[in-house]
Design brief:
Blueprint: E1 10-13, E2 20-21, H1 24-30, E3 40-45, E4 51-55
Antiparallel strand pairs: 1-2, 1-3, 3-4
InterPro entries: Mito_Tim_assembly_helper (IPR052604), Znf_CHY (IPR008913), Znf_CHY_sf (IPR037274)
Keywords: Metal-binding, Zinc, Zinc-finger
GO molecular function: zinc ion binding
Length: about 120
């Protein structure tokens, strides 16, 4: 699983060490050599788990899809973004954080409460 590109659709086999990586940064993080560039690339689709080759000299719009399952693997990369969130207690235990204070609850009466109307007892 690539931690640099969240929506990687294929793995790419590096021509230098013959190992599979999701992106060039994953190769740089784990290997001590530079990635060898080539125009003949081998891909492994993450949807159908089948491998295929593409010649990048003759790459066209129709080559953006896996030849086995038509998975569109050339898409805009989603990279992890830092975000700030509010930490709180588990809402299943304490729902005060999500309770709408604008809505007034009706007062719960018991049989021992006097509503002011004694004729209703009985």
């Amino acid at each position: 699983m690539c931690r640099h590109i969240l929506n990687a659709q294929v793995s790419i086999r590096s021509p230098c060490c013959r190992q599979w990586f999701d992106c060039a940064q994953c190769h740089a993080d784990t290997q001590d050599h530079q990635l060898k560039q080539t125009m003949e690339m081998a891909f492994a689709c993450k949807k159908c788990k089948k491998c295929f080759r593409k010649d990048m000299n003759e790459f066209e719009d129709s080559d953006e899809f896996c030849p086995h399952c038509d998975n569109h693997f050339v898409i805009e990369a989603k990279e992890p973004q830092a975000r700030l969130e509010v930490e709180g207690d588990d809402v299943r235990k304490d729902a005060r954080m999500i309770k709408d204070e604008r809505v007034k609850e009706k007062e719960q009466l018991t049989i021992w409460d006097d509503e002011g109307d004694a004729s209703r007892l009985g």
